[in-house]
Amino acid sequence: MNKLTRTVALIAGLVLVAGCQSSPKFSLKGSNLPEELEGKYVYLILDEDNKDSVQVSNGSFAFTSDQIDTTHLWYLVSKDAQIQAPIVRESGDFTLTRGEDGKYTIAAADETNSLNAVYKNFTKEMDETLAPITQAYRAKDQELAKEGIDAEAADKLRAEMQELDKKYYEANNGLARKYYEANKDNVIGALAFSQLQFESDDDFIAAYEEASDVVKEDKNLKNHYDTIIVARETAEGKTYKGDYEISDGEGTTVKLSDYMEEGKYLLVDFWASWCGPCRMAMPHLAGIVKDHSKTINVLSVGVWEKSKEVNDAARQELGITWNTAFDKESQSIKEYGILGIPTLLLINPDGTIVYRGHSPQDLDAKIKELGL
């Protein structure tokens, strides 16, 4: 065999070997499933755009795929049985099992080298560490709520609750950082990062910008980051956004600028009928309407709401007599980077935001400071 023949043979052999090598496979099986699932489908879902399904036959199903995804948490879901089991689509064999408590879980054939095993350890360790602290906090909170408790005992309970809160923060962040550092490039890292508690938005932004690509590509974390950035654009001292359209979905469209009057401040209250703190803020707003009508216009904008009908009913129930608007698509949330409600904005006649926050008491103090 000459040199050229040997070279051709070697290349052919390499091609043959490469062609015979199997790609990584993800395999998930289930058996002894309840009768109500016979002939029905179970679904492997990431989101509305990413889902797979397999039909149950003879009480069993078998799903095999070469789609490996270690950067997201998927869920095996059944519409006809109580199945909602998380799983990472990594290479390996997995089995759906039902425990004595009736709950379904997914086990890996090789738990030693499985990200799914890491995920289970992460959730278990977080729960076992944090649950006792949470229970102790709730017990003290219940003691504090009892009638007849004296001031000294109440102060002691508050101090103990503060210590428990600090203990929870340190334990939570310690575990989350441990799992994040060990899993920066997979879904466990993203889940651990999302568990971290930050003392300020600045701390979150700094951590996010230094985080791994998996963290930055997580939809929820990216949305949180983007929302904070937008919130900074409409912070105190910034010019308000008044010209975006607020549509109620029934043909009526308004703008915040429609409610600006020459020489008067505009107080905007973003709220929802289901939001307890929003409802508690209404008496403060009613007081502002009554006592500062010559200097402040008030506008309550319904966001994150099921329907206009629900919002209208709450307005009537709460006795809201001032200006209102219903934001069907919650466009205001995007424009102002709102993370929680109520969000209260006080805008001066020049269009500058002079107060942004969630506390009616702080708002009252600002109005007093401005001499309105």
Report on the structure:
This protein has 372 residues and is of the alpha+beta class. The protein has helices spanning 3-20, 115-145, 151-182, 187-195, 201-209, 213-216, 219-233, 276-291, 308-318, 331-336, 360-370; strands at 26-30, 41-47, 50-55, 61-65, 69-78, 83-89, 92-98, 104-108, 246-247, 253-254, 265-271, 296-302, 323-326, 343-347, 353-357. A hairpin with a 5-residue loop joins strand 14 and strand 15 (353-357). The strands form four sheets. It has a five-stranded mixed β-sheet, with helices on one face. It is globular and about 75 Å long.
Can you summarize the main beta sheet?
5 strands, mixed
Mean pLDDT: 92
Rg: 28 Å
- Number of helices, where a helix is a run of at least 4 consecutive DSSP H or I residues: 11
Give the N-terminus to C-terminus distance in angstroms: 100 Å
Low-confidence stretches: 1-20
How many β-strand stretches?
Answer: 15
Tertiary shape: globular
Structural class assignment: alpha+beta
Amount of helix? 40-55%
- What is the string of SSEs from the N terminus onward? HEEEEEEEEHHHHHHEEEHEHEHEEH
Strand order of the largest sheet: 13-12-11-14-15
Tell me the fraction of residues in β-strands, as a range: 15-25%
For the structure shown, list the relevant keywords.
372 residues, disordered N terminus, alpha+beta, globular, 11 helices, four-stranded mixed sheet, five-stranded mixed sheet
Brief synopsis:
With 372 residues, the protein is an alpha+beta fold. The chain contains 11 helices and 15 strands. The N terminus is likely disordered.
